[in-house]
Amino acid sequence: MDKNLGAPLFDRVALIGIGLINSSLARIIRRDGLAREITACARTRRTLDKVKELGLADSVTTDPAVAVAKADLVVLGTPLGAYREVTENMASGLEPGCIVTDVGSVKACLERDVAPFLPEGVHLVPGHPIAGTEHSGPEAGFAELFEGRWCVLTPAQGTDGVAVDRVAELWRRCGMTVQMMDGAHHDKVLAITSHVPHLIAYTIVGTATDLEGDLRDEVVKFSAGGFRDFTRIAGSDPTMWRDVFLTNREAVLEMLGRFSEDLVALRRAIRRSEGQLLYDVFDRTREIRRGVIDAGQHIPPKGPKDNGD
Ligand code: NAP
Q: Which residue lies with its CA nearest to atom 33 of ligand 1?
């Protein structure tokens, strides 16, 4: 029996979009009794049938306004490109005092796509649990996904403190460490730690796919030489990642500019046979890897493999 049983944090939680992230949250809420009731909302009947089959929610609907009725917590878990439409559609069902949070990989955009459409008295606490895999849909979720990871909350100044504390407590109960951050700062940090690395993976797998004949066939055969890890990342959901790049455009372009300069410098070092320069760069990056290990962020969760998005 889990230690958290018998202490619900919320009465009725509405999960808007129930894929990898929100279904993992649903599994924890269920397992640990963190809410009395869960309502799940998705676009398609197929997803909602799966949710019912897996027992992840008490009720399901395709209508966001119906889903959020009487909810004291709403968690947006759709791709970022759907935020505005979903928020507009659910607004009429929201009641004063309700907390709206989300799990999206970009944060500054909520001020534009969500905040203006919320009724008076509804508290917005944007969030990003930095944990994920390359798999999608409610069947891909698992309760251990968030354990030992960071969750960033980016509430605007003046947000109700109790609302922020309640969202923070939810993620702590999921096994996460919570950090407050400015939304724009979050987007810059994630641009370099997550978004640009995904773009590199998409690029290199694309480049390999475009190679001619023999060379391309050998790519799959010898993929264990580093390419395999890129293919895993490049297997991530295309809709989610399209929206991440379109939503975090400025920060990604800034970090991509820096990355491109450094790549050109390494290319030049190879061309000029500057071994010491190459060694120094690789030696420095090895230190970063050690730092990641020291911080315990290299360990995959107990479930399917993680890529920490
Ligand atoms: P997912 O598995 O692809 O699921 C997305 C869900 O959103 C599905 O239930 C889908 O319903 C629903 N949806 C899509 N468009 C919709 C619309 N227009 N209206 C209503 N519902 C809609 O997604 P995910 O991987 O859990 O990611 C969800 C969010 O978490 C994204 O914003 C992403 O940036 C963030 N995030 C993802 C990861 C990761 O590793 N995947 C990690 C951290 C944060 P249908 O199935 O019916 O289409």
A: 104
- List the one residue out of 247, 227, 216 whose CA is nearest residue 78: 247
Q: How far is the CA of 95 from the centre of ligand 1 (A)?
A: 24
What distances in angstroms separate CA 158 from CA 74, 115, 276, one per listed residue? 20, 13, 52
CB-ligand 1 contact for 240 (6 Å cutoff): yes
18 touches 77 (CB < 8 A)? yes
Q: CA separation (Å) from 180 to 77, 120, 151, 210?
A: 20, 24, 9, 43
Three-class SS state of 102: strand
Ligand 1 center to residue 32 CA distance, Å? 23
Walk me through the domains of the chain, giving residue ranges and CATH numbers.
10-181 (3.40.50.720), 186-272 (1.10.3660.10)
Q: How many CA atoms lie within 13 A of 90 on its CB side?
A: 35
Which pLDDT tens digit goes with each residue over 179-192?
Answer: 999 999 999 999 99
Q: How confident is the model at residue 217 (pLDDT cuts 50, 70, 90)?
A: confident
Q: Whose CA is nearest to atom 18 of ligand 1?
A: 82
d(CA 121, CA 126): 16
What's the one-letter identity of residue 3? K
Centroid of ligand 1 to alpha carbon of 128 (angstroms): 13
Q: Which amino acid is at 125?
A: V
State which H helix or E strand residue 38 sits in. strand 35-41
